[in-house]
């Protein structure tokens, strides 16, 4: 092969290394990735648009279906936004229940990710091991909320279910289980020479890149950016819990911003979540779990709101941000969801430049991408313009222009 | 249809047509040690060309329609399709969306429907058993 000749390979949208549809167009020279382009929009579901045709109580259910892995974070953000427009005061106990649910979700999500990362490295036995560990947190979630995945516990003005004193035992048991298994997990992921060889100094995101690309969550923290909504702008019960953003320095003594660091941060966060849950159980105040238990009353309170507000939450993958505007109608005027992968996905470009083809799956997985939250589409005249359609329209316009003046100019939308 | 080809373990290909991940992680949960369908030889494969069943999740986004048809066409016959999750079955909360073309059975033939949002791993395993029974019945004909 002559020097400097590059090839293009497309990874995705349906590809065994990707858990969700997304397309990575890589330009490669030999084994080396020279440039990456990312194509989104394959699985756009128009959730925000549907949200503007339903009342806020119904949107809570819709928000939960944005992401199956972190559904507390979307319902929580949306409810926070509605509450702040309506001036609803959430009872302190509900804040604690929300926090416990959110931290259980983080444990589940991070362990799930560890399994996926192991799978991407070709280490399937570790994947099976981590997913076995994960079942414990799912059992606890099911015990508390009635479901393994769709937790449906957060509602406008509080929570739907209480966590009672007699249930604390099972939660503590789960916390102990993860404490006991933590060292094993740490040894597998951080001491194993093969994982080290595959993850150390691979997919580096420098601190300044992380800052300029607005990376969030563990991806940013692994590059040394100490940002965490729970610390910077504490909400729910977090002001009482004193959360500190975790960087790999605490465990490894240095920050390199590579895949290995991202593994370390997520592992430490599992332990952090366990501690937070234990603290919550200790400090949980008595009281109501929602400002109003009758859904019809809640609905009448939030139906004709006027104003705009935001909701923020530190999801397992980083900051989730919801913007909501109500203009005195039953349905929201505008609802915008910005999920963490939307920020983090651009960091694929500096991470993958110069990487080997074989590293694409693990580097791509290392930001823990979640496409279902991220997919966007361009809309014109109420119609969706996916990438293909947009391109087709553009080609049509050029063609019609080429035909010369007087032909269908301006007739192609 | 030569169903003798299927009297061994079923291999599955998982296709995400725009799901929220809820169903996808329950599929993986069904494969991993707690539920462990791998003990029956059922496993996920990396390409539709090796697969006997298609595990389809999600409400089929517009962009994924053509890809779904292509993946289905790439699977060798005899093949079966298992549709997992409410949103692929009926549209569920997304029924009025402008960018979805589901329910999935309008696009490719579906053999077994597994409702639930998401269905529990037990329900998914039950669905696999249904696929098996269906194929056996057809083989006897
Ligand atoms: S059925 Fe529910 S859990 Fe499954 S993909 Fe659809 S919305 Fe997600």
UniProtKB/TrEMBL annotation, chain A:
Coiled-coil ranges per UniProt: none
Q: Which residues bind Mg(2+)?
A: 48, 337
Q: One GO molecular-function annotation for this sequence?
A: oxidoreductase activity, acting on NAD(P)H
**Family matches, as SUPFAM superfamilies:** HydB/Nqo4-like (SSF56762)
Question: Which of UniProt's keywords are assigned here?
Answer: Iron, Magnesium, Metal-binding, Nickel, Oxidoreductase
Please list the cofactors this protein needs.
Fe cation; Ni(2+)
* Gene3D superfamilies, alphabetized: Cytochrome-c3 Hydrogenase, chain B (1.10.645.10)
- Where's the NADH-quinone oxidoreductase subunit D domain? 121-376
Which residues take part in binding Ni(2+)? Answer: 67, 70, 370
The entry's Fe cation-binding residues are 70, 373
- Database matches in InterPro entries: ComplexI_49kDa-like (IPR052197), NADH_Q_OxRdtase_suD (IPR001135), Ni-dep_hyd_lsu (IPR001501), NiFe-Hase_large (IPR029014)
- Reply yes or no: does the keyword Oxidoreductase apply: yes
The name this protein carries in UniProt is Nickel-dependent hydrogenase large subunit
Query: Taxonomic lineage per UniProt?
Result: Archaea, Candidatus Iainarchaeota, Candidatus Iainarchaeia, Candidatus Iainarchaeales, Candidatus Iainarchaeaceae
From TrEMBL, chain B:
Keyword NAD assigned to the entry: answer is yes
Q: Which cofactor does it need?
A: [4Fe-4S] cluster
Please name the GO terms that the record assigns under molecular function.
4 iron, 4 sulfur cluster binding; metal ion binding; NADH dehydrogenase (ubiquinone) activity; quinone binding
Recite the UniProt keywords alphabetically: 4Fe-4S, Iron, Iron-sulfur, Metal-binding, NAD
Q: NADH:ubiquinone oxidoreductase-like 20kDa subunit domain: which residues?
A: 20-130
Q: Which Gene3D superfamilies match?
A: 3.40.50.12280
Q: Does the keyword Repeat apply?
A: no
What family does the Swiss-Prot or TrEMBL record give for this protein? Belongs to the complex I 20 kDa subunit family.
State the protein's name. NADH-quinone oxidoreductase subunit B family protein
Species, as recorded = Candidatus Iainarchaeum sp
Recite the lineage of the species.
Archaea, Candidatus Iainarchaeota, Candidatus Iainarchaeia, Candidatus Iainarchaeales, Candidatus Iainarchaeaceae
């Amino acid at each position: 092969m002559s020097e400097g000749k590059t090839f293009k390979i497309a990874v995705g949208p349906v590809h065994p290394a990707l858990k969700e549809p997304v397309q990575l167009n890589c330009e490669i020279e030999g084994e080396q990735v020279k440039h990456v382009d990312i194509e989104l929009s394959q699985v756009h579901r128009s959730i925000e648009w549907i949200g503007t045709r339903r009342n806020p109580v119904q949107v809570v259910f819709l928000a939960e279906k944005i992401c199956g892995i972190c559904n507390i974070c979307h319902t929580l953000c949306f409810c926070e936004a509605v509450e702040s427009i309506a001036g609803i005061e959430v009872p302190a106990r509900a804040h604690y229940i929300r926090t416990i649910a959110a931290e259980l979700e983080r444990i589940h999500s991070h362990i799930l990710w560890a399994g996926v990362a192991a799978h991407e490295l070709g280490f399937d036995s570790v994947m099976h091991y981590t997913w076995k560990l994960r079942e414990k947190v799912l059992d606890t979630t099911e015990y508390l909320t009635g479901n393994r995945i769709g937790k449906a516990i957060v509602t406008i003005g509080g929570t739907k279910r209480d966590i009672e004193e007699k249930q604390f035992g099972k939660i503590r048991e789960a916390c102990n289980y993860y404490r006991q298994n933590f060292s094993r997990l740490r040894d597998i992921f951080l001491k194993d020479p093969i994982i080290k060889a595959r993850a150390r100094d691979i997919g580096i995101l420098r601190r300044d890149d992380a800052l300029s690309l607005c990376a969030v969550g563990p991806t940013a923290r692994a590059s040394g950016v100490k940002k965490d909504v729970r610390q910077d702008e504490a909400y729910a019960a977090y002001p009482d819990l004193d959360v500190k953003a975790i960087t790999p320095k605490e465990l490894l003594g240095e920050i390199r911003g590579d895949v290995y660091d991202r593994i370390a941060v997520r592992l430490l966060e599992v332990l952090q979540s366990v501690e937070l849950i234990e603290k919550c159980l200790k400090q949980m105040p008595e009281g109501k779990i929602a400002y109003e238990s009758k859904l019809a009353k809640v609905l009448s309170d939030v139906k004709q709101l006027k104003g705009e507000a935001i909701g923020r939450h530190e999801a397992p993958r980083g900051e989730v941000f919801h913007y909501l505007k109500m203009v005195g109608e039953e349905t929201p005027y505008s609802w915008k969801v910005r999920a963490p992968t939307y920020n983090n996905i651009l960091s694929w470009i500096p991470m993958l430049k110069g990487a080997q083809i074989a590293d694409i799956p693990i580097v791509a997985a290392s930001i823990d991408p979640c496409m279902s939250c991220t997919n966007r589409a361009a809309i014109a005249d109420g119609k969706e313009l996916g990438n293909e359609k947009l391109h087709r329209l553009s080609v049509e316009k050029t063609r019609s222009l080429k035909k010369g003046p007087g032909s269908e100019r301006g007739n192609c939308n | 249809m030569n169903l003798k080809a299927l009297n061994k373990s079923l291999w599955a290909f998982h296709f995400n047509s725009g799901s929220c991940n809820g169903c996808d992680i329950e599929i993986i949960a069904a494969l991993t040690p707690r539920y462990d369908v791998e003990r029956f030889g059922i496993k996920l494969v990396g390409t539709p060309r090796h697969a006997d069943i298609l595990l389809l999740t999600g409400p089929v986004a517009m962009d994924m329609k053509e890809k779904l048809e292509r993946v289905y066409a790439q699977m060798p016959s005899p093949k079966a399709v298992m549709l997992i999750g409410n949103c692929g079955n009926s549209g569920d909360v997304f029924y009025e969306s402008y960018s979805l073309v589901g329910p999935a059975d309008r696009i490719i033939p579906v053999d077994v429907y597994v409702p639930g949002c998401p269905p529990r791993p037990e329900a998914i395993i039950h669905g696999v058993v249904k696929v098996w029974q269906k194929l056996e019945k057809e083989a006897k004909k």
